[in-house]
Structures are given as structure tokens and as C-alpha cells.
What does this fold into?
Amino acid sequence: MNLDQFTLWSQQFKTWLSGHGVHNDLAVIISNYSWIFVIAILAAIAYYVVRKILYNFLKRLVKKSKNKFDDILLEKKFFQRLSYFAPAIVFYKVTPLVISHLSGFVNLVERTTEIYMMFAGVLVIDALFDALHHMYLTTEMSKTRPIKGFIQIAKIILYSIVGIILISWLLGQKPLAIIGGLGALSAVIMLIFKDSILGFVAGIQLSVNNMVRIGDWVTMSKYEIDGVVTEISLTTVKIQ
It folds into this structure.
């Protein structure tokens, strides 16, 4: 399939509509919307094939596998989130071929699809981080060296990078310009989110310096709280 083939089909369809008494302008509109509908149907079919057929087939393979990591990936919905790319790829690849004459609409679809795929990519990487953390929890080292805080830092960095890229796309600016603008507002940001930033830094210090470990007995006389540390994250330490 190429652009000329779709153009020929589109012209033939408009000619057929005109031959059946449809006004030429209306025939063009009907033809355009018909192709958009066809693209949407193809995208839905692609998602169904990947999500229902290929995913279920892969799910059966994973359950038969002796490898534990692929089971964790399945549990954390890594493969399921990969299926989100299927309809986006159809829209991104087929739209310029089918309705190339609507350049404005094609550009809108491409930009929207790029943003969608970026969000889908973030969800996939997020699931991968969760799977890696879950896999790490199965090791002996996890009992003394929790990495949940580092995983959270990695996610924050990921979301920040994607957020900056998206804002730069929407504003038509370079990412470095957005970063420069955020730098100018850093004083205001630090003032507003002072407590959150202090908690964030404290969480990093706990993780890096290994100041508290899972299983430690913690006593806070001021709040009349004591117990065993069960979880250490970037901003919280859970005790029971």
C-alpha cells in the first residue's frame, strides 16, 4: 500500500458518491470522515489482536516458563501496557497515507499520537521499575538494603523528563528553555514545597546512608509510638 493507492481509492469513492446524486462538497466530507472511521476501526482491531489474542498467548507462555521475572512482569502489567502502542501505531502510520490532503488534521493526529505513545511508554517503564523492585524483594539483600526510595527517585526523574518534553512540545519551545524557566522559579518552588522537599531529602539520606533497616525497632517517645520497621520509601517509614 502507498499514498497513490489510497488517493486513487479516495477519488473513486468520491466519484461514486457524486454519481449517486451526492453534492461534490458533501462527497468530499463523507469521504474524509469515512476514512477516519476506517482508521479508527483498524486501530480497534489492532488493539484487540494484541490485547486479547497475542497477550493471552503470551500469558500462557509465561505461566509455562520457569523464569520468575517474566511472571513478575506479567503481574505488574508490563505486557498489558505494551498493547497500548498498537492503536497508536495504526493512527500514526495509516493517517498520513489515507488523508494526506488534510495536512492540518494529519499533523494534529501525529502530535496527539506522539503524546499518547509517550504516556504509554511511561506506563511501560513504570511497570518495569515495579517489576525490578518486586524481583529485588525476593533477594536476601532486600532485607537490609531496601531500594524502594531509589525506585521512586527514578520514577520522579522519568516523569519530570517526560513532563518537560510534553510542555516544550505544547509551547513550541526547546526543553532547555523550559528547564531554564523552571530554574528561574526555583526559589518560589522551594518556598511552596519546602516541607515536601525536606522530606524528600531526608528519605534519600535514609536510603543512601542505610540509617534505618527493615526489621529495626524504632521508638518515638514524643509521639508514644514504637514498633518494627516494615517498609522504607522515599517519604515514609512504616512501622508496626
Remarks:
- Strands lie at 217-220, 225-232, 237-239.
- Residues 85 and 117 are 6 Å apart (CA to CA).
- The radius of gyration is 26 Å.
